[in-house]
């Protein structure tokens, strides 16, 4: 391992140690397959998480700084209408971006799988909710989800969540009164964090720094399944970014990767799984071009990198004249899907989120202000703890105007072209942002809040959910992978992750990523 040399006689090579790659590797190792995981970033020591939390509390750092993102290794470009801050919410390393994610895990709604048929826009998935339903159950068990069956607008369920839901926060109770007056239903948020001891990990300790770091390990991250895969015989080679996939006419033969110091190795295997996320997955396929595949690997459809999708953020916040206990809970405990299935060709689905941390923490106020001593105490007493806010996620349709490509002029620390994110937002999403802002202002108005900020059509940003760049479908001319997530062009190469989503819906994608990963592992085992 110190040499990071290839593994002989590998059955499966998994590229990427985020949630998709980790779950695929764990399932295949469990059935006796010889699995090797190649991960571009390092393995993080859990003992360092308290130090990372302290760093996260200091205003000089943001999420990239906490997890070592940035520099030539992580360089990228933006050629689109809107700048895309790619490094703000991704982590290269064992565990991937689940190391600093928010931890919300919802199932897609039934109509999300049939957008064209039910809403008149987008495209239909080649699978439906019923196909994925048993894998959603398994994914909730694997990640450890705390939740309650109290969402009257969600898709049908089979059984209770593995753990009880977290109770509503104090600020949720304030929102509840306003929403009741307005006829807006609130319900709990399914969270991939332990409300009680589960799967050998303790219950949430309430540090409140869930983004960007959970020191206790109560919030799920993919290192859980990477370590489990290792216990079952898998091999993990970290700091081993893959340069390209070698291939013949219809099979991948090897993954070429670089180790610290610059030495290049070649990992052979019977099957390959590309699980690098919605940006790095298409980048790797495009980097693997050849005389046989001059436009990139698995790209006979021309769709690799195309239809890059995001969830757009809408939000309204302000202050009220009573304590809200902001930041007391570091994650969301209540939401509303009431407006979700009103979606049609003109308006997208969206969900509301009731913030528990809509204002700065006292540490932030103290360290970023100019006051000291008694003056600082007076300032904190007057300004802290009265903030409220309501957010929303809005669906973005797949579009030829949003895509990931290679930058012909900028290279990374290995001399390879960096990803260029060309991001644009469709008119339907912009109209929906306006609608979400209307509902949010009504709620804050009912609370009697003074509105101090709005994020809407003009200044919207991404939720950092990279989706859609290697779409699944039944037609090889209109998709990159089959419904079983095997590439149409290559008989032994599968893609796992949100890049295969034909549409994105308006709920956080990780549970669907996990469900598809479990389904993919079954398909690979059957093929082998």
UniProtKB/TrEMBL annotation:
<dbReference type="InterPro" id="IPR007867">
    <property type="entry name" value="GMC_OxRtase_C"/>
</dbReference>
<dbReference type="Pfam" id="PF00732">
    <property type="entry name" value="GMC_oxred_N"/>
</dbReference>
<dbReference type="GO" id="GO:0050660">
    <property type="term" value="F:flavin adenine dinucleotide binding"/>
</dbReference>
<dbReference type="InterPro" id="IPR051473">
    <property type="entry name" value="P2Ox-like"/>
</dbReference>
<dbReference type="InterPro" id="IPR022357">
    <property type="entry name" value="MIP_CS"/>
</dbReference>
<dbReference type="InterPro" id="IPR000172">
    <property type="entry name" value="GMC_OxRdtase_N"/>
</dbReference>
<dbReference type="Pfam" id="PF05199">
    <property type="entry name" value="GMC_oxred_C"/>
</dbReference>
<feature type="domain" description="Glucose-methanol-choline oxidoreductase C-terminal">
    <location>
        <begin position="398"/>
        <end position="517"/>
    </location>
</feature>
<dbReference type="GO" id="GO:0008802">
    <property type="term" value="F:betaine-aldehyde dehydrogenase (NAD+) activity"/>
</dbReference>
<keyword id="KW-0560">Oxidoreductase</keyword>
<comment type="similarity">
    <text>Belongs to the GMC oxidoreductase family.</text>
</comment>
<protein>
    <submittedName>
        <fullName>Oxygen-dependent choline dehydrogenase</fullName>
        <ecNumber>1.1.99.1</ecNumber>
        <ecNumber>1.2.1.8</ecNumber>
    </submittedName>
</protein>
<dbReference type="GO" id="GO:0008812">
    <property type="term" value="F:choline dehydrogenase activity"/>
</dbReference>
<keyword id="KW-0285">Flavoprotein</keyword>
<feature type="domain" description="Glucose-methanol-choline oxidoreductase N-terminal">
    <location>
        <begin position="91"/>
        <end position="312"/>
    </location>
</feature>
<keyword id="KW-0274">FAD</keyword>
<dbReference type="InterPro" id="IPR036188">
    <property type="entry name" value="FAD/NAD-bd_sf"/>
</dbReference>
């Amino acid at each position: 391992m110190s040499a990071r040399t290839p593994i002989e006689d590998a059955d499966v090579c998994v590229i990427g140690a985020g949630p998709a790659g980790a779950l695929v590797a764990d399932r295949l190792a469990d059935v006796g397959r010889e699995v090797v995981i190649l991960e571009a970033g390092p393995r993080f020591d859990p003992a360092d998480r308290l130090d990372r939390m302290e760093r996260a509390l200091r205003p000089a750092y943001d999420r990239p700084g906490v997890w070592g993102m940035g520099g030539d290794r992580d360089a990228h470009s933006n050629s689109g209408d809107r700048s895309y801050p790619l490094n703000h919410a991704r982590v290269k390393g064992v565990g991937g971006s689940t190391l600093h994610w928010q931890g919300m895990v919802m199932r897609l709604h039934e109509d999300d799988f049939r957008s064209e048929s039910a809403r008149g826009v987008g495209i239909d998935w080649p699978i439906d909710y019923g196909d994925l339903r048993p894998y959603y159950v398994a994914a909730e068990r694997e990640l450890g989800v705390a939740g309650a069956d109290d969402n009257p607008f969600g898709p049908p369920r089979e059984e209770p969540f593995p753990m009880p839901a977290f109770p509503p926060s104090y600020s949720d109770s304030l929102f509840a009164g306003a929403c009741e007056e307005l006829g807006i239903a609130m319900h709990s948020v399914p969270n991939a964090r332990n409300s009680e001891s589960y799967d050998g990990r303790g219950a949430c300790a309430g540090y409140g720094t869930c983004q960007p770091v959970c020191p206790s390990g109560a919030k799920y991250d993919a290192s859980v399944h990477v370590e489990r895969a290792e216990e079952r015989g898998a091999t993990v080679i970290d700091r081993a970014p893959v340069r390209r996939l070698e291939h013949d006419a219809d099979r991948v033969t090897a993954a070429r990767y670089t180790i610290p110091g610059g030495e290049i190795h070649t990992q052979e295997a019977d099957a390959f799984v590309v699980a690098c996320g919605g940006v790095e997955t298409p980048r790797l396929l495009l980097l693997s071009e050849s005389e046989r595949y001059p436009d990139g690997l698995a790209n006979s459809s021309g769709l690799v990198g195309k239809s890059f999708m995001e969830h757009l953020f809408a939000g309204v916040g302000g202050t009220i004249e009573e304590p809200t206990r902001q930041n007391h809970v570091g994650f969301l405990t209540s939401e509303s899907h009431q407006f979700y299935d009103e979606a049609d060709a003109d308006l997208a689905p969206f969900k509301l989120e009731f913030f528990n941390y809509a204002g700065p923490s006292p540490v932030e106020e103290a360290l970023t202000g100019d006051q000291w001593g008694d003056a600082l105490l007076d300032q904190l007493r007057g300004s802290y703890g009265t903030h409220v806010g309501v957010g929303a996620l809005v669906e973005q349709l797949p579009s030829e105007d949003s895509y990931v490509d290679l930058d012909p002029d900028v290279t990374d620390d290995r001399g390879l072209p960096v990803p260029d994110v060309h991001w644009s937002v469709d008119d339907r999403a912009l109209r929906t942002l306006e609608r979400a802002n209307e509902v949010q202002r009504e709620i804050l108005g009912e609370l009697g809040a003074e509105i101090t900020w709005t994020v809407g059509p003009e200044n919207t940003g991404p939720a950092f959910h990279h989706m859609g760049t290697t779409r699944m479908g039944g037609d090889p001319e209109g998709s990159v992978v089959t419904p079983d997530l095997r590439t149409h062009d290559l008989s032994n190469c599968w893609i796992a992750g949100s890049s295969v989503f034909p549409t994105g819906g308006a709920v956080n994608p990780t549970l669907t990523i996990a469900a598809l990963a479990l389904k993919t592992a079954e398909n690979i085992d059957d093929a082998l």
